[in-house]
Amino acid sequence: MTNTVAHTAFNQSELGRALIDRLDEAAQYSEPGPGVTRLFCSQAHRQVLPLIGRWMEQAGLTPQLDAAGNLVGRCPKAQAGEKTFIMGSHQDSVIEGGKYDGMLGVALPLLALEALKREDVTLPFGVEVVAFGDEEGVRFPTTLVGSKALAGSVTPDQLEAQDAEGISLREALIAFGCTPEDIPATAREPANTLGFLEVHIEQGPILEQRDHAVGIVTALTGIERHKVTLSGKAGHAGTTPMNMRHDALVGAAEMVLAIDSVLQNTDELVGVVGRLDVHPNAVNVIPAQVTFTIELRSPKATIRQQGRDVVTAALTEVATRRGLALNIENTYSADAVACADWMMTALEQACTQVSQPAERMFSGAGHDGLAMQALTDIGMLFVRCKDGLSHHPDEAITAEDGEAATRVIMAFLQQLKHP
Q1: Which residues are annotated as a binding site for allantoate?
Q2: How far apart are alpha carbons 243 and 247 in whole angstroms?
Q3: What is the C-alpha to C-alpha distance for residues 144 and 225, in angstroms, rounded to an integer?
Q4: Helix (H) / strand (E) containing 270
Q5: How far apart are CA 371 and CA 406, in angstroms?
Q6: Residues contributing to the annotated binding site
Q7: Binding annotation for Zn(2+)
Q8: How far apart are CA 369 and CA 377, in angstroms?
Q9: Is the peptide bond between 280 and the residue preceding it cis, with omega within 30 degrees of 0?
């Protein structure tokens, strides 16, 4: 490869400012309200694609929307079928999220590739950058649809998952201009894939504590999600005696506290009851049914299983004591996965090359690598975020840290050698 710096190269401060400007522009494609709300196959998703497509073209890639709602940019070598290294992250957000979760991992590698292009650097392998359509799993009760498509692990039942309006994922993809029946054909060949790397904000406080711009991820946490349906009996709120009620909401409230107690008292286990729906949700009617979600996370599968068993026993006890019907449905499960040693080493070498201290660290959040590890080796670079805050409108990074991370990726790509 060549490494001749042309007069059009970005200088040492332009990359960080350009990155922040791009992320600010992408954040405009959102539903109204605080922060960024951009759900899978939504109007905001549709509107942001031309912007990402322009970034891809500026980086020398050709953008294409695939059957699973991913926007994929490929360089000529990748299009020709040469061995390819994949980078990327998700474009979707949580409700009222921030500018950087997900979209940073789309904009930053594209900016790094554009900078290398300006410096007349030619990489000896193909490159793909993917803006995954769905990672958060907010609109549909499934997650990682985009990365699972590349890994070849999307199942027919996932396509039948429905959103709150009763629209199935299959229907949403068709309305978005995709062809769900072609999803199996989007799976990449493992032998032709060199690896997958994602850049992401840390979503935690460790890098701030270390005063480091970036960190190298060792593994991604295991995650499981459950849908709990608690059924009681509706009745008049003024005429039904208190001791004769089967109030699903009171039972659910007790269950939420029981779940919190388990989480508070179990090391290496975290979780949340993140969504709760009440029916009939009327001011003067005893709640007949409550549906809520439970998410459990731990780097150790045995701890998650033990926590799940204790939670299930506690919920069963509450339901029995209050005369309520209980149904618990597992909607998602993914074990923890390790990042490849060779990629962690390559990232460390890249950090050293651009004078950035970087230590290894565990990810307490799940990412697209959970699905991509079924296809290829994975790696991840964390970028410091203010106060460790994520999934919030005040989520923030600095231009200086964005600059540092972009330089790391540029160095990583230039010295990348697959084992």
Answers
A1: 225, 284, 297
A2: 10
A3: 13
A4: strand 270-272
A5: 24
A6: 90, 101, 136, 200, 225, 284, 297, 391
A7: 90, 101, 136, 200, 391
A8: 9
A9: yes
Q: Which amino acid is at 113?
A: L
pLDDT digits (tens, 9 = 90+) for 169-194: 999 999 999 999 999 999 999 999 99
Quote the CA–CA distance of 52 and 34 in Å, as a whole number. Answer: 22
Tens of pLDDT, residue by residue over 185-232, are 999 999 999 999 999 999 999 999 999 999 999 988 888 999 999 999
pLDDT at 335: 85
Q: How far apart are CA 22 and CA 363, in angstroms?
A: 26
Task: Fill in the DSSP letter of residue 383.
Answer: E
Compute the mean pLDDT over every residue in the chain, rounded to the nearest whole number. 95
pLDDT, mean of residues 75-100? 97
Residues with Cβ < 8 Å from 167, sequence gap 6 or more? none
Strands 378-383 and 222-231: unpaired
Q: What amino acid is encoded at 271 in this protein?
A: G
Q: What are φ and ψ of residue 258, in 5° steps?
A: -65, -40
Domains of the chain (ranges, CATH numbers): 14-221+336-414 (3.40.630.10), 224-334 (3.30.70.360)
Task: Specify the pLDDT at position 9.
Answer: 66
**pLDDT, average across residues 298-323:** 96
Handedness of CA 134, 135, 140, 145 (dihedral sign): positive
Residue 241: predicted pLDDT: 96
**What is the spatial distance between Cα 40 and Cα 318, in angstroms, rounded to a whole number?**
36
Residue 221: per-residue pLDDT: 87
pLDDT in tens, 265-304: 999 899 999 999 999 999 999 999 999 999 999 988 999 9
The beta-strand segments (E) located in 80-191 are 84-90, 126-132
DSSP state, residue 28 = T
Residue from 221, 205, 219, 215 nearest 347 by CA = 215
Cα angle: 245, vertex 251, 254; to 5 degrees:
140
Residue 364 is predicted with a pLDDT of 81
Please tell me what DSSP assigns to residue 36: B
Is 29:38 a contact under the CB 8 Å cutoff? yes
The angle subtended at Cα 173 by Cα 96 and Cα 143, nearest 5°, is 50
Give the C-alpha separation, 403 to 169, whole Å.
Answer: 37
| pTM for the full predicted model | 0.80
